[in-house]
Amino acid sequence: MFNTVSETYENLFDIKGRTTRKEYWSTSLFNLLILVIAIFLSETLFALLYFAVVVINFILSIKRAHDVGYAGWYIFIPIFNFILLVSNSDVNDNKWGPNKII
Questions:
Q1: Above 70 in pLDDT, residue 86?
Q2: pTM, entire model
Q3: Is residue 92 domain-resident?
Q4: Structural domain of residue 32, as residue ranges?
Q5: How many domains does the chain divide into?
């Protein structure tokens, strides 16, 4: 799991890339764990990390939409976000990059 999360963070700001379902869920759960730990440490730390996690999850959602084969702006449709969470990756290469096999 930590290899997947570290790889996701290395390529985080490549918006035109793709994020597989495993990468998306692993990184989201890791971010949630960090936020839970931050709640107990400091309110200020939690507030800063919460902002960072919101930005990271926004980027991950865009890349997840690319992986399924849709444009990133589709994440603004609420029901579409649920579809992204459970959809399989597009097995073919698409305009956002090659298929990642993890």
A1: yes
A2: 0.81
A3: no
A4: 2-86
A5: 1
Quick check: is 36 in a domain? yes
Find out whether 48 and 23 touch, Cβ atoms under 8 Å: no
Q: How many CB atoms lie within 10 A of CB 25?
A: 16
**Among candidates 76, 79, 93, 86, which has minimal Cα distance to 24?**
86
Output the pLDDT for position 47. Answer: 93
Confidence of residue 9 (pLDDT cuts 50, 70, 90): confident
> Would you say residue 98 lies in a domain?
no
Quote the CA–CA distance of 98 and 89 in Å, as a whole number.
Answer: 11
* pLDDT level of residue 40 (50, 70, 90 thresholds): very high
Residue pair 34/56 in contact by the 8 Å Cβ criterion: no
